[in-house]
Amino acid sequence: MKAKRIVSILLTGSMLLSLLPVSALAAAPVFDAPAQTTVKKAAPLVQEADASRSTEEEAATRSSRDLDAENGTAESFSIQLNAEGKPESSGDGTHWYYSAASGCWLYNGVFALQPSSEAEAESALQATLYIIKDAEFNSGTVGKRANNEGTISDGTFQREVYNYGTISNGTFQWEVTNEGTISSGIFQRRVYNYEIISDGTFQGDVRNYGTISGGTFEEAVGVYASSRTEAKIEGGTFEKDMTLANDDAPITISDGLFNGAVVDVGCASPLSITGGLFTQAVNVSSITDPSNLQITGGYFVNKPIVPEGSDIAFTTVSDQGGRTFQVPVNDGFSENGYKTLYVPHGMSERQANPITVKTDTALIDCLADDVSIMGTDKVQLNDDGSYTIEVYQPTSIVLVTAEPTPDDPGELDPAFSSGAAALGVVLGTAGLGYITYAHISSLYLYYTLPGGFIPSTRQELANVLWTTAGKPDPVSTALYTDIPADNIEQQKAARWCVEQGLLSDHGATFGPDTKVTNARIIRAWNSLKKVPVPITN
């Protein structure tokens, strides 16, 4: 009879229904970059061009070039190369100019190189290339040195490049010295960075004297601050070791994913770490003056090694259930989840260091040295579903997260199974699939649980299970801190269910108001049947 009643209700319901390892430090970058003054001399300004050009001709060239730039009327030019890889003409003198003595100069416009179609012709430009402020190079292969004060938006560069403008794309097969901006591109050999790298793929080692805010770095990176110029790491993915050294200027690391070791090899000025995710060793113990080191942020898989006498201390962050959590990195969240991380703690509650975590399931409690701080201003839920937690001086932060909904919530009882089978015959597979699991499981619980009452919280579920078992006394008389002490029946219900393994607790707390799913209720109900107590329904 019960199965027939279920089929009848399901039929009615169907009509209503409509996610450099450290050992390689010997090969780590050595700070031997060329002097910037020398580099500058290698890139003469436009006024140092072919001296044979008259003052009047040069003035006219500049006037026309500046006018085009102001009006935004830059033209596109294709420079035809001969079989030797040299421009076939000397240019118009206004937008571009070439001479064997001074090289190829791009003044104003967007330029591409067109190699000769002759058999066995040289495909790359065989002249030094100068890209001036109002010029853009966007196609072709350059076989000699290039000096850029304008924009490189694409192309292949077989020899060294000195950049004082912008590189937004391209393939660079030789060393690059950057005193401008690199926002994209593939760099196959060493890069000396004195200004800004915001993106790109770097296949050779990098010597950074400026700012790195993004990019993927496949080889070792050396960071060196000198001449009173701060060196910064503000983002990026670093696959190999990073070495740090400074003399009279600070180094700051505020973000980035560090998949290699981070080691100081001589820091005589301040080093500050305020953010980033460090998956390998961080060793800054050779800093002779501990006051030069500040670690006020970041997430560390291994506890950093700091100088003797440093007052920097760390807190572990872990999930009580062994589940993983994500942390912020590179303007997003880590691809990998972590079960335990180290974070620096603040000096006091007034000087707390905030951390942000994104848990796999809902955060139902947060323990600082086994004391709940959930529900206080120390734990805040963010709009993106992450949580910001203030870490002051505890030795551990334990995240208590809800149990995930299982794919298989447990077997339904035979009466319901036969009813569902009968319904499948009536509706067919498509019709039965249209009835969602949520509706089916709700109907099952309605006819299975006493009085048809379906719990919505953990406390309600504990009450149903405990009452159904005849309200036995638990072994322990300890009280949960998040259930009113004078509500003895709720205390007993929660404690007894935990002792029987029907539900879990979180030490001193139970989480009575946490929502429960139908799958969780079914699993607990099936587990109750295995407890040696009489069940009243």
Protein traits:
alpha/beta, 537 residues, 30-stranded mixed β-sheet, five-stranded mixed β-sheet, disordered N terminus
Describe this structure in words.
The chain is an alpha/beta fold and 537 residues long. It is 20% helix and 30% strand. It contains eight helices and 41 strands. The strands form four sheets. It has a 30-stranded mixed β-sheet that branches. Strand 37 and strand 38 form a beta hairpin. Helix 1 (2-16) runs antiparallel to helix 5 and helix 5 packs parallel to helix 8. The two termini are 17 Å apart. 37% of the residues are buried. Mean pLDDT is 83; it is low at 1-65 and 407-437.
Number of helices: 8
Q: What form results from the Cα inertia axes?
A: elongated
* Radius of gyration, in angstroms, nearest whole number: 34 Å
Assembly of the depicted chains: single chain
Q: What structural class is derived from the secondary structure elements?
A: alpha/beta
Low-confidence stretches: 1-65, 407-437
**First CA to last CA: what distance?**
17 Å
Number of extended strands: 41
The chain-level mean pLDDT equals: 83
